[in-house]
Structures are given as C-alpha cells and as structure tokens.
Amino acid sequence: MKKMIAFILLVLALSGSVVGASVRPPQEVVQETSARMIDALRQNSAALRQDSTRIYELVDQIVLPNFDFELMSRWVLGRAWQQATPDQRRRFADEFRTLLVRTYAKALLEYSDEDVRVPPQPPASGSETTVRTEVQPKTGRPIQINYSMHLGNEGWKVYDVTVDGVSLVTNYRSTFASQIRNSGLDAVIADLQQRNVQGSR
User: Which of 14, 33, 73, 88 allows an S-S link to 84, with CB 3.0 to 4.6 Å?
Assistant: First the structure.
C-alpha cells in the first residue's frame, strides 16, 4: 500500500487552479504539478536528508490543495458516513487526511527519480473526468495511474486514484468497513489518531 501511494504522489496532478474565470485543463495541471513536486524534492534533497520531516511542508504546499478529502472520506466510509455525527465526520476526515499525508510523504522520499508520462487523451467535458498517467520505474513495466477528478468551485480536485486497476478509495473502504462492523466508528477514529501520533515521532 505504501509503495502504491508513493507512486500516486509522484504524479499528483491535480488541482484546479482557477485563473480568472477559466480553469486549466486537468492534463496540463497534472504535468505542471508533477514537475513541480519532483523539482522540489531534488532541490531540497540535502535538507531532506538532514531532516526528513521537511517533506511535510512540501506536501502541504504542492499536494494538499489538490485533494477533496471530505468527499474521499464520505466515499471511504460509505453508509457509515450517513450514520455518523458531524463531529465524527470531522474527526475522521482530519485523521484520514493526516494518515494519507504522512504515508505519502514518507514513501515519496524513496521515489523522486521516476519518469512520469501523461498520454494524449480527450479534453475534459462536464464536471468529472479521469486523467490517465504512467510512471516508469527504473526497472519493470510502466505503472498505470488514473486520477478521478471533479470540478467544483475551487477547480479540479481528486476524489479517487486507481493504480493498475486498484482503487485507493475502494481499498480503504473495505478495510474501514470491517473495522467499523467489529469495533464502531469511534474506535476506528481512535486507531487512526494513535497511528498518526506514532508516525509523527
């Protein structure tokens, strides 16, 4: 899972910068943002070797604005989201976001030299689209990464990522559904919080 998430971040496309009244095409944003992330890793390589926690700042600046964490949390929890209180929803979304960020950041340090390719694809139409990308590791076949995105008031944002046919949202949804059945949502949130605290040490 960590390697999958690392590859996801390498081409983290995704946002929607709004320029005036226009929105940049998702494919253009993918290419520019992936280049920006990789450049930042390379330019800060010495500092990151001394203090790897500085990767969080880069992730905050470049990656976080491109995800719709509330929508991802809603989809990941499924029916449990509908049954959750507003406070439970907020706490879960916060902890889930932190979990993803820390996993992304730590794993990303290992993958800063892969080549990223955005194949030609039709322009986005409507308020949803999928941006297809390929990551070429130093060895082995290309890894197919598809970004499911929706267009909102703040531009294009990611709500799911599929790596070689495996959906990030579906993967976590299955895991959390089992935990919620066994222990309840509050226990799941508490477990996430504990994992995040341990990960920050």
Answer: 88
